[in-house]
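Recall that a protein's primary structure is simply its ordered list of amino acids. Everything else, from secondary elements to tertiary packing, is in principle encoded there. The following example makes that idea concrete.
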Amino acid sequence: MPRTIWSGAISFGLVTVPIHVVSATEDHSIHFHRVHLEDMARVRTRKVCELEDREVATSEIGKGYEIARDQVVPISDEELRDLPLPTAKAIEIVAFMPWESIDPIRIGDGYYLAPDGQVAAKPYVLLRQALERSSRVAVARYAWSGRERLGLLRVRGKAIVLHAMRWPDEIRDPSELTPPPVELSEEEIDGALALMDTMTRDDLEGDDFRDTYTEAVAELIEAKREHREPPVAPEPAAESGQLVDLMAALQQSVSKAKESRGENAEHADVHEMPKKRAAKKQPAKKTTAKKTARKPRKSA
């Protein structure tokens, strides 16, 4: 059983579900120590008081809010825990919404909520089945680590999952990142859709979804331990520096995706760009792009 992160209750109207919270994810990354390269000894961070110029113990360290350069107000963990908030000791459900109406950019880390004892089993299952049958998620408020948070409750298997959510004012406006206006032909859009069709998957299993970076780091460590040369990274493909023919790139991408899936790459469902546009973009490459046999698009 994973370590309990927080204990409290889910408040669902007048129904209370005692729960404890555990992490829903595991970190399999390879972590490194900071070392002195001359002798490989550990380099550690020491906690030093600026005024007394001495190292202080953990029991001497607390929280403080700086009002001014010469005025700091101490705040204890007990004071934060005892704040007069209904969410201080409960995950308070405030609304139910369709899952599709939640912007994924607001969703953060996930935690499993486990019923705390036999008395919590029935209301826990009641809430889980109600969420399942309604096809909705619950939006809740709760207070952890010195701040009130917004959360989302959903069902995964037989468990209820709590996702941390960002408040609306924590999401930056993306309008300043919008690219300048461009013109796209229907052929280019059809080409992008054809590429999406060839890359569509029903699950996230297989070699394409392995953590190859962690595997490469593990191989590097093993090679250095055995005093041998680590694997050499492949040379990146050289860029031509020429303007990219968007339709040619789409056609090649579709063919490559079909080949990787063992399909016939000769029938890439991408229309050729009109000759007038192709001549304008790359007048020297009218005959370089490999033509593909066309077939009528299937209706959706």
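The chain is about 25% helix and 25% strand. Helices lie at 77-81, 121-134, 186-198, 212-225, 246-260, 275-281.
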